[in-house]
Design brief:
mainly beta; M1 Pyruvate Kinase, Domain 3; 12% helix; 233 residues
Length: 233
């Protein structure tokens, strides 16, 4: 088993950037989801603003998240966000744990993705593991992955939402994707995960599955469209 691909999402709900290596910290993959879109009442995501999902985000050489090449805190980026998410949408930086939907990592496996039969980017994982039989990931919650110095805990299977129905290139919606997820996977695909021990992960690194008694310190994020549970800067 090995690391087949890595993704980071500098701006929550925007398209991700593929990496060859990444640092994982106890706060997840370094640089992941440092900026998010918000409306007057709270955070907005691709679940209710699917136009965000095809808008590219990246990390500049200075470490600043960018929207279609523009630093996130510039008028050009703000205009692009309003075009996709509405006139009252704006970008905000926030590095608290609530910015993650469940755990601070999402792990997919190539066998399950092959059964899924669609672009893995619809699942928005941080890690894609190669060399995994199709049904294996369903037995992994309660275990951990060891790759290099990093140890990643596996909490549960991810219950999928309507984001999976959006083509990551065209933005076209195909509701049959969601129907198939419900029929063939019970709606659950890929693994909610968190970082037990930090380290560097590289594409091609070997990965070992092991038992663990570790538990995450925080699970669960904002309720999309609802007021923030506490003020953010």
């Amino acid at each position: 088993m090995h690391v087949a691909a890595l993704w980071r999402y500098p701006v929550k709900s925007l398209a991700g950037e593929q990496l060859q290596q990444a640092a994982v910290t106890t706060d997840g993959l370094h640089g992941d989801r440092l900026v998010h879109v918000r409306g007057p009442r709270g955070p907005l995501t691709g679940r209710t603003r699917p136009g965000l999902l095809t808008l590219p985000a990246s990390t500049g050489a200075d470490g600043v998240p960018r929207v279609a090449g523009h630093p996130w805190n510039t008028p050009a980026a703000a205009t692009l966000i309003r075009q996709r998410a509405g006139d009252t949408a704006e970008l905000r930086a926030y590095a608290g744990p609530e910015r993650f939907d469940i755990g601070n990592l999402l792990v997919a496996t190539d066998g399950a993705v092959a059964r899924f039969g669609h672009d893995v980017r619809r699942l928005r994982p941080n890690l894609l593991l190669g060399g995994v039989p199709g049904d294996a990931e369903a037995t992994w919650p309660g275990h951990a992955l060891i790759t290099g110095d990093a140890v990643i805990g596996l909490h549960s299977l991810r219950m999928r939402c309507n984001v999976t129905t959006i083509d990551p290139d065209t933005g076209h919606q195909d509701l049959d994707v969601f129907r198939r997820l419900r029929r063939d996977f019970g709606g659950e695909l890929a693994l909610n995960a968190w970082v037990i021990h930090p380290g560097i992960i590289r594409v091609g690194d070997s990965v070992r599955l092991t038992a663990t008694t570790a538990t995450p310190h925080h699970l669960g994020g904002w309720i999309v469209g609802a007021p923030y549970p506490r003020a953010i800067a």
